[in-house]
Amino acid sequence: MNPERYLPRSLPQQLKGLTELALDLRWNWNHSADTLWQKVDAELWEATEDPWLILESISRKRLETLASDTDFVDELQRQFDYRKEYLSQSTWFEERHGDNKLGAVAYFSMEFGLSEALPIYSGGLGILAGDFLKTASDLGIPLVGIGLLYQQGYFRQAFDTDGNQLAFFPYNNPTMLPVLPLQGPDGEWLRISVELPGRTLYLRGWQAQVGRIPLYLLDSNDLLNDPGDRGITGELYGGGREMRLQQEIVLGIGGWRLLEALNISPTVCHLNEGHAAFVVLERARRFMELNDRSFSLSLQSTRAGNVFTTHTPVAAGFDRFAYELVARYFSGYVKQLGISMDALLALGDGLDGDDRDSFNMAYLALRGCGRVNGVSRLHGEVSRRIFCPLFPRWPQHEIPISHVTNGVHMPSWDSAAADALWTEHCGKGSWLSTLESIEQAWHNVDDEKLWAMRNRARQPLVEKVRQRLARQQAACGVSQEGVLQCLQLFDPNVLTIGFARRFASYKRPTLLLADPDRLTRLLTDTERPVQLLIAGKAHPQDEKGMRLVREWNDYMRRPEIHGHGVFLVDYDMGLAAELVQGVDLWLNTPRRPWEASGTSGMKVLVNGGLNLSELDGWWAEAYEPEVGWSLGDGQEHDHDAAWDAVEAEELYMLLEQEVVPAFYTRDEQGIPTSWVARMRQSLARLTPRFSCNRMAREYTDDYYLSAAMAYRRRAADNASLSAAIEQWHISLTNHWQQLRFGQYTVQESSTRHLFQVEVYLGKILPTAVRVELYADPLPPDADPVCVTMDRGEMLAGSTVGYQYHATMPAVRPAANYTPRVIPYHADLSVPLEANFIRWLE
Ligand SMILES: *Cc1c(COP(=O)(O)O)cnc(C)c1O
User: Fold this and answer.
1) Total structural domains in the chain?
2) Gene3D superfamilies attached here (predicted)?
3) pLDDT tens-digit series, residues 536-590
4) Which residue ranges have their beta carbon within 6 Å of ligand 1?
5) Which atom of ligand 1 is nearest to the CA of 588?
6) Do residues 650 and 746 both lie within one domain?
7) CA of 123 to the centre of ligand 1 (A)
8) pTM for this one?
């Protein structure tokens, strides 16, 4: 497709390259072309940092001037060459997996936070997806993204004169967004369709480019659709339950169809949260059609290639739909699958009381994927707990959910000062490598340099805060004099603390306001002052969250706080980047375990900022006393107001007695040595671990490759392996009830115990099961003990039975151990795909 068709004019020959540069969202993290855009239109660049918008807005005359400016044309050529070089560079993926056993990965997500220029995200989930695409581009991972193009992005925040939150929903005009329509084979606009009750929904396809990675987006705003349906992709997380279901049908079913229309056949499908779970149905349905197999066998085959990442820390957070609603939308679809509605509903069935009559998308995802993970070590544990109902009688540690801790795309969040120091000490493109040498490199940087970087990064933040505050004040009707005063406020030498996040109550955004006067004393101390930058949006339907916004606004308007603190309006990626680059300390106060991972605190790492955070999400695995500060006792306390008060007290104490003194205690050169020591440890140890580079490599090496191979094995030879697995599964289902234990004996001695147990298998093949000896972990955070018992002689008698035995060293009492029988198949994940278990009673 010729992208220029979508510009309101043609470009002079010398400037043709601008279109390609403007459409590649890589300008977002590779700032080498910034000056180019600045030169095109300084004012627009300052206001939007959006090259595509600039290109669409500037005059023909300006373009002609630029075309005759040889310096500009040379610079454009240089940038164009850089881009070519980036795209042709050899990558981590090529070097490590040159044979590409992986094929292609399709990454499905309800939101993508790539840039303010493409506002199709609301928070952490989207930012993660955006950072992941950027990293996949850097590392050369063969991946495509699938999402929705919303007509309205997430809302924009403003304040009224009293400090109440106002919400605005600006319209995303697709022709002004850096996306291009996808074309079909005959040059027509690529269109796919999905069936809704009594009608067909048509979806148009768009493409955004993220370096090497395409992001495909669907939207329903097509004249062919009913007026009501044109709004299905109208608003991210807008509308009621029915609209959410429609959106998820578009993402999962429509998304898979779009890939097919583009001739992309992924081996691996990655579901970023349960919203996308319908893709497992559609992928299986297509497999079924192409191979003429049953739905269950097709799901068995395709499931192996699906990966599910859950982000939810409490069962109440799972996405659910009433049975009645699902039945209405899928009545035609189940006929195509050749299954009953009950069989479909059973895929999202919760088994437990809570979930009766509702279809749980996370459960569908779990039942349709071959690998499942949470997003931090702690969240992995929490997820094993909340998915327990799907694995009756299985111990919690064996619930088949592992974790890949989130990370952030460092080049998107680093400051110019940090980037310079990183390049000097770790080499150019350190984020493209395996990160092994990074820790050592930081131990060779001296204190002055680290401290100078911090000071250099704080300055532009203060400058931007002044300008933002001035704009905010002007918008609220403050006098011109007052507005001008804002440009003098704040001090680039003062300890700067940031707190910015969605104002959901579990994040406890006002914990620091528990004792406002104490906070005021902290901020306004004349010797050792602190400046506090707060930002965040409350969901427009969340009354409580909006009250918390108002509380901060009330506090910030106290005259004595003037110049010591500010609530910055309209938290978004742009503001987030300014904050994480400049602040010295990032605060995070969620109620454990509600923050599945959290990523904003990771963004300060590369900039030498420190974290003070609740021991939740990523911080629960990152925290050591050398790298920052921790809040809470590492336990769960639910919504306990008394406990919140305890933590508020702890927070004040930490700030007053540790953070402020560490920052202001200086040596003869004016360097806060203990602060800088923490900076060094945090930079050296945490940055590589919490970078998206590490995360993307983990997904590739430990999830995608094994998923791709498992899928290929199952699908080969017209799915013969899947057919065998299905037979195996049917046989276990039919005969599991007959399985029983016979005599169990233990011979104890001072050194070892000998365990023997008789198991009657009936019609189950001895190779289809494993008899194990299991003991709960001791201490509770250790691994459980689980050994396979050896099969001995066949027992005489009418049903097939065997004697199984095992010997264990006598470190634990024999009574700790219990024999059990579980399924076994070399090509299957147990208990994920077969959750039978029988314990000796
Ligand atoms: C990074 C980021 C988030 C996610 O941060 P949390 O730690 O999950 O709060 C949310 N919104 C924006 C704008 C961000 O940049």
Assistant:
1) 4
2) Glycogen Phosphorylase B (3.40.50.2000)
3) 999 998 999 999 999 999 999 999 999 999 999 999 999 999 999 999 999 999 9
4) 123-124, 127, 501, 571-573, 576, 598-600, 603
5) 7
6) no
7) 5
8) 0.96
